[in-house]
């Protein structure tokens, strides 16, 4: 993880958005980090309940893949979580989150920015689940079933695209 510089446009964008939508959120106290390892999430907001410290970590690969326009949406998404932590000590994608997505022109989930290594494919409904690690379900798909229809899974290696 690397720290974001105070003069960074990301932090300035967050300050502007917070001033307009979350005036009680002390955005200047949020720690900002850049992850060069994350593959599945464009950003994550962390909260330490003992100190009430809020950290927003943003993924460099997501920025490289999407560019600023899409990535600024991720910043706004994570700001909603920061506000939730500040106000309630907890954050999720429930009602308090979704009421802000339209106003902040953001969404609940980010678009994929890296190619998964494997796909779990349901033999019955054809549902596809991306997997980035060789987890238990990738190693032993016969021990799991599809949450949508109860069907069996097969695993396919990604073609890298």
What does this entry show, briefly?
By secondary structure, the protein is an alpha+beta fold.
What does this structure look like?
There is one protein chain. Helix content is 33%, strand content 21%. A hairpin with a 5-residue loop joins strand 5 (118-122) and strand 6 (128-131). The chain has helices spanning 9-21, 60-88, 95-101, 136-139; strands at residues 2-3, 31-35, 43-48, 53-59, 118-122, 128-131, 153-157. With 161 residues, the protein is α+β, with helices and mostly antiparallel strands. The mean pLDDT is 87. The strands form two sheets. A four-stranded mixed β-sheet has the order 1-2-4-3. Strands 6-5-7 form a three-stranded antiparallel β-sheet, with no helix packed on it. The chain contains four helices and seven strands.
Topology (SSEs and partners):
Layout: E1 2-3, H1 9-21, E2 31-35, E3 43-48, E4 53-59, H2 60-88, H3 95-101, E5 118-122, E6 128-131, H4 136-139, E7 153-157
Number of helices: 4
N-to-C order of helices and strands: EHEEEHHEEHE
Tell me roughly what share of residues is in helical segments: 25-40%
Number of strands: 7
Over the alpha carbons, how many angstroms does the gyration radius reach?
A: 18 Å
Taking all residues together, what is the mean pLDDT?
87
Major sheet size, sense and barrel closure: 4 strands, mixed
Q: Strand order across the biggest sheet?
A: 1-2-4-3
Unreliable spans are none
What key attributes describe this structure?
alpha+beta, 7 strands, four-stranded mixed beta sheet, 4 helices, single chain, 161 residues
């Amino acid at each position: 993880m690397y720290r974001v510089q105070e003069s960074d446009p990301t932090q300035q964008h967050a300050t502007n958005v917070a001033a307009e939508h979350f005036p009680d959120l002390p955005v200047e106290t949020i720690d900002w980090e850049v992850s060069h390892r994350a593959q599945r999430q464009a950003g994550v907001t962390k909260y330490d309940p003992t100190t009430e410290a809020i950290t927003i970590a943003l993924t460099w690969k997501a920025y490289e893949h999407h560019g600023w326009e899409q990535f600024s949406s991720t910043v706004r998404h994570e700001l909603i979580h920061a506000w939730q932590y500040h106000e309630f000590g907890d954050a999720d994608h429930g009602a308090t989150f979704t009421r802000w997505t339209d106003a902040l022109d953001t969404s609940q989930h980010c678009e994929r920015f890296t190619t998964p290594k494997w796909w779990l494919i349901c033999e019955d409904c054809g549902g596809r689940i991306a997997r980035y690690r060789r987890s238990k379900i990738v190693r032993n798909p016969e021990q799991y079933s599809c949450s949508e229809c109860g069907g069996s899974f097969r695993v396919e290696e990604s073609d890298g695209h």
